[in-house]
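User: Please fill in residues for this 189-position structure.
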C-alpha cells in the first residue's frame, strides 16, 4: 500500500478479483443458505435429473458412477418460495459486455414464461464477469426482448435500462430478494 509521502507498508496484500466469476453459483448457494438459515425464504438449487447406467462397486463405500445420461433437459437452476410466492430463476455468466441468447435454452425461457403466467416470480441473474456487474432481469423483460428483436444477444444497455443491478455484499452475498421486494412488494428502488 502506498501512503502519502511515499511510505510503503510491509506485508500488505491486495484483494484479487480475477476468479470472482467462477464463484457465481457458489455465491448464490451461500446467499440461499443465508435466506434459509435466517428464515427469510426457502430457495434451493435444483438437482440435474440423470439416470445412472453403470456403477463400479469397488467396495460398499466406494461405489463410483461410471456411466450416466441426462433424463430430460433441466428447466432452471433454482426454485423455492418467498413471502407466499413461488420463485424460479436461472443463473448465467458471460465474459462479454452482452448476454448471448445461446446461453439460455428455449425450454428454459418457456419454463420461466409458465411460472409467470401462473402467478410465480421468474427471472434470470446474469453475471457480467469482466464488467463486475450482476443484473436481475425479469422473465417478462427477457421475453419482450426476444420477441421484439432478431439479435442473438442482449446488450448490457438493455440490462441497465430494464434490469436491476445487484451489488454484492458480505451477507447475503447476492441479495436478489432485495430486488424482488422492490419489484413485487413495494420496496424502494
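Assistant: Residues filled in for all 189 positions:
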Amino acid at each position: 500500500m502506498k501512503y502519502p509521502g511515499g511510505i510503503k507498508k510491509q506485508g500488505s496484500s491486495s484483494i484479487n478479483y480475477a476468479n470472482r466469476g467462477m464463484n457465481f453459483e457458489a455465491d448464490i448457494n451461500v446467499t440461499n443458505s443465508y435466506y434459509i438459515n435466517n428464515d427469510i425464504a426457502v430457495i434451493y438449487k435444483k438437482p440435474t435429473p440423470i439416470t445412472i447406467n453403470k456403477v463400479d462397486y469397488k467396495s460398499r463405500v466406494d461405489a463410483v458412477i461410471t456411466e450416466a445420461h441426462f433424463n430430460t433437459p433441466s428447466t432452471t437452476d433454482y426454485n423455492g418460495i418467498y413471502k407466499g410466492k413461488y420463485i424460479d430463476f436461472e443463473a448465467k455468466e458471460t465474459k462479454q459486455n452482452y448476454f448471448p441468447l445461446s446461453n439460455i435454452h428455449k425450454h428454459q425461457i418457456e419454463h420461466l414464461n409458465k411460472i409467470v403466467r401462473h402467478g410465480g416470480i421468474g427471472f434470470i441473474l446474469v453475471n457480467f464477469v469482466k464488467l463486475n456487474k450482476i443484473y436481475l432481469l425479469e422473465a417478462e423483460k427477457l421475453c419482450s426482448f426476444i420477441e421484439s428483436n432478431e439479435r442473438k444477444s442482449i446488450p448490457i444497455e438493455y440490462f441497465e435500462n430494464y434490469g436491476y443491478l445487484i451489488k454484492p455484499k458480505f451477507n447475503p452475498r447476492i441479495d436478489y430478494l432485495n430486488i424482488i421486494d422492490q419489484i413485487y412488494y413495494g420496496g424502494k428502488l
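For context: Residues 24-37 form the longest helix (14 residues).
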